[in-house]
Amino acid sequence: MTQPRSVRPFYRPMRPRRRDEPHRAATPLELFFDLCFVVAVAQAAANLHHDVSEGHLGHALTRYLMVFFAIWWSWMNFTWFASAYDTDDDLYRIATLVQIAGALIIAAGVPRAFTDGDFSVITYGYVVMRIALVVQWCRAAAGDPAHRRAARRYAIGVTVVQLGWLLRLALPQGWGTAAFLLLVVADLLVPAVAERPGMTPWHPRHITERYGLFTLIVLGDVVLATSVAIQTGVDAGDRHLWSLAAAATVTVFALWWLYFDRPVEAPAQLPYSLLWGYGHYLIFAAIAAVGAGLSVSVDYERHLTHISERTAGYAVAVPTAVFLLTVWALHVRRRQRATVVVAFPVVALLALLAPLGPAPVYVLAGLLVALVAVTVLVRSRDLDRIATAADPA
């Protein structure tokens, strides 16, 4: 007798999900997975904040980009796999919980990576996550004959690269950065090579929702980090920080608005889907860095930093510009009207100039509000044109 679908078994053959499956939404397990990544993102942003406040700019940027790659790439690979092969049996849940444990190990290793350049704990957590995903790809290869070649390529490619990450720990310290960059390229090539025999059946709208949810989580980290920094200052008697809190709030609201301004969908073609998926590394990292930069600005106002006002301003301006240019490239350039297409890079350029003058955080907040106003105005005009075309009378 066939077991009802509503009863979750311990094991179910890993069949592919339909790319056109209606009403596909994020599952509670996926949401729990994202929630556990909050810890890792918060650790990366907090350590970036402290390094920049101390004036260790080159060190801060290098360590942050390296740490955030481990966080983002682990999250992204689970997300795309789950979109294609979420069976929600007990084995699938256990493997996902192992990946969550790996994410918590990564988070625990972030402080050591920043302070001592010791990536061993992060590497162990990363390998735990990736090997658990190899087990899932092996299940997919067994349960989905149509995409078996792709699943096998994923399993083999991920395994080989993980051996490389472990071997990197044994290299002399001077070789660490070069080996890191080489392994990053190898990791990024795995999906490009594995998907060539035939794309795995991930769901475009589901992927878009998942990326949007992770964007919200990173924005939530920005709100938390900034509010904690301001609360600490206010508790210490710095009441003038309320205006900075208002500017920070406006900045976060504007980032949310600009990312979610119009509905988008992950592209179905392989080259652009890779570009879209990989490009979000810059969006996620930039948003978290904005939060770190706003915390640096609070430290500067409280005279707790060893940097200039210009440097504190660039701690917010640079990630803001990166965010705007990446959203422009992935969401705006091919879908919006000419006015908005031009406005995004112009505001990004003005953002980079803002720290050259006084009160850069307030100027940046004003620039973002102006850009939001442009998008709202253009959208209103588009709606008016549609209404006029539908009812000429």
Any chance you could write out the topology, listing elements then pairs?
Elements: H1 28-53, H2 57-85, H3 90-116, H4 120-143, H5 148-168, H6 176-194, H7 204-235, H8 241-259, H9 270-301, H10 309-332, H11 338-353, H12 360-390
Description:
There is one protein chain. This protein is mainly α and 393 residues long. It has 12 helices and no strands. The chain has helices spanning 28-53, 57-85, 90-116, 120-143, 148-168, 176-194, 204-235, 241-259, 270-301, 309-332, 338-353, 360-390. The chain is globular and about 60 Å long. It starts with 27 loop residues before the first helix and ends with a helix.
In short:
With 393 residues, the protein is mostly helical. Helices cover 76% and strands 0% of the residues.
Keywords, separated by commas or semicolons:
transmembrane, transmembrane helix, 393 residues, 12 helices, globular, membrane, 2 domains, Low_temperature_requirement_A
Q: Kindly report the average pLDDT value.
A: 89
- Describe the sheet with the most strands: none
**What is the 3D shape?**
globular
Radius of gyration: 22 Å
Secondary-structure element string: HHHHHHHHHHHH
Approximately what portion of the residues adopt beta-strand conformation? Answer: under 5%
Work out the number of β strands: 0
**Structural class from helices and strands?**
mainly alpha
Number of helices: 12
Q: What is the first-to-last residue Cα distance? A: 63 Å
Helix content: over 70%
Instruction: Count the domains.
Output: 2
Name the poorly predicted regions: none
Transmembrane segments: 60-82, 94-115, 121-142, 154-171, 177-194, 214-234, 240-260, 272-292, 312-331, 338-355, 361-378
Organism: Micromonospora violae
InterPro entries: Low_temperature_requirement_A
Keywords: Membrane, Transmembrane, Transmembrane helix
